[in-house]
Every structure is written in C-alpha cells, then in structure tokens.
Design goal:
Elements lengths: L6 H28 L5 H23 L4 H21 L7 H36 L3 H86 L6 H25 L8 H16 L3 E5 L8 H22 L3 E8 L3 E8 L9 H7 L6 H10 L3 E6 L5 E8 L5
Parallel strand pairs: 1-2
Antiparallel strand pairs: 2-3, 3-5, 4-5
Amino acid sequence: MAPNALTPVFVGLRTGLHTLFLVLTVLVVAGAVFAPTDSSILVIVLAAVLVLTYGLGGVIVRSGGARGRRLRWLAVLTLEWMALLWLSPEAAYLVFPLFFLYLHLLGRWWGSAAIVVSTVVAIVALGLRGGWTVGGVVGPLVGAGVALLIGLGYQALAREAAQREALMAELLATRGQLAANEHESGVLAERARLAREIHDTLAQGLSSIQMLLHAAERADPDRPGVEHIRLARETAAGNLAEARRFIRELTPPQLDDQGLGGALRRLAATQWASQGLAVQVRVSDTVTLPMHLQTALLRIAQGAIANVIQHAHASTATIALAVSAEELRFTVEDDGAGFDPNGSALNSVEKSDSFGLVATRERVQQLGGTLTVDTAVGQGTTVIVDLSLRETP
C-alpha cells in the first residue's frame, strides 16, 4: 500500500498481530517446558516449525507472490496449527491471529466461513483434551466475534484509505492541469500584449513612413533620386507586411465555446468567403484538444487557405480533422490548379508572404509531427498533417 495518512495505523495493526502470534507461540512452548509431558519435545519442535512457516508468509507477501501461493501457505499454516492443537490445548489461543489471516487472504465471505470452521475446531479440541467447560466454548466464540469486527473494520479502513489515495491523486492531477491552463493563459495574454504593442508602434510607424514616401514619390516622379524613395517605400511595405504577419501569429482568432471547429467555420463564413473561396469544415465540435494544439491547427489551416487563395485559383476547399486515441490527421484539400512538387512552383509558394509552406512545416516539426503535400499540376493540392497525441509537446 502506498504511504498515506493511515499507513501508521496499518503498520501498528500488523505489528500487533505478528507480536500476538509470537507471544502465544512462546506461551505454548513455555507450557511444554514447565509442565513437561511425553509430547513436550514434539510440541516445541512443531511450534518452531509453525513460527518459521509464519515468517515465510511475510517473505511471500513482500515478494509479491501469486494468490495461489499465498493460499497454499495459509493451508500449510492451518494444518500445522491443528497438529499443534492436538498435542497442546494451549495452542487453541493461536486461532485468534489466524482469524485475521483468513479475512485478509480469503476475503469477507470465505474468510468468515474459515473463522467459523477454525472456531469449531478449537472448541472441540479444548473439549476433548481438557473437558467441556463454559470458558472453553465461550472463549473461542468471543475471540471469533472480536476478530470479525476488527478484521471487517480493518478492511473498511483500507477501502477508505484507497479511496482517499485515489481522490488525492485526482486532486493533484487537477492542480497540475489548472497550473498548465494558467500558464497557457499567461502565455496567450503576453502574446496578445506583444501583438498590440507591435501594432500600435512598429506597424503604425511603418505604415506612416510608407504613406509619406508614397506621397513624395507621387509629388515629383521625375525628380533625381526618386528610385531611392521608391526602394525605401517598398522596403517599408515589406517590413509592414512582416509586422502584420507577426501580429497575426501572436493573436489567434478567438477559439469560442465550439473550439477549433467553431473558429474555422467562422473564418470560412466571413474572411475566406469574402475572398471568393467556399471552404467546407469537417471538424467535430465534440473533439477536445489542448489549447496550444488547437491554435497550431488553426494557424496551419490559415496558412494553407492563404496559399490556396493566392496561388491555387481554386473555387472550393475542405478542412478535415480525424482524431484517434493516439494520433490525429489534419488535412486541407482544394480543387485548384495544383503544382509540380519538384518544380519551381513550390519555391514560389514557400517564398510567399505570411503563411508559406516553410512556416507550416516548421510549426508541424515543432509539434513533433509530419507534413505531407500531395499535389500535381491540374489535380489540386492536399496538405496533410499527422501528429502523435502521445508525443505532442
């Protein structure tokens, strides 16, 4: 049993039981020594064998012996006790610690039956060897009743301890999950703050520079050095596009109560539809994935659809998610022009602004997955992402 608040109680009960068995065995040996009979030597030898057998049971339990092995040990111990009882009536008191062994190893019902049988054996042995007395009958009966009450109470206490351990493990797991969620929320909040800062400072400044340079270029298109103004404007425009890409990367669309499926359907009905692409989303609302994984899949879908709109000249696209116990497959398929995966068209796609295949491939690699692009000229393109849920960071 794993250590818990009740472990000292269980250790104390087991220690008391072992001590009681040894003390009662010593009393039997003492009776054979101080009141010698013809069978005294046999009583001493058999008592020693009984103690050794009892100690062997502790070795079997600690080594994790099978149930059948434990039951055979208990049967041998019982037979040795009965033989000792036949030679010495004082061995009848050893039945009391045996009661607890019966309950522990045989369970509630079979253990109770074994207690009843051993009690009858002890009463009969006392009656045949020392005569029938009230004490010889009532003593074993009272011992059996006390053992039943204590043994059943011990089992109830053990069940309660197991339940408490399970509850504690669940609470610790819940605390860990809450800490992870709080950390994730903090990361998302910091990313959103950085996005706002970039938007309010860098992006706005680059936009203003671009506008001023564009105005200067239009004011006197034939002036000397206008090519430098044009180059500066184009550089500012490129840097502004990069800043906006950073902002989009840092601030994912709100994943509402419907999660990834709801966010994708919202994008399909608004942003992508307004750009002339009909996107069908096949993502179940009942699928539950970690927030960082949902965000990554959302980004991958945005990148793939951006490429479809910019390069594929497609009319429809389909986003699908299949989740099993250990892995998931996320696909984005379009009916566009496709391209030669070994040709220059792929380089053109990967070098495009914002959401290129390079960024998507890097994101998938960070998640420990694989990215596959299935395409051919005139046959559309399918982007396939395979992730292992066991190894996803």
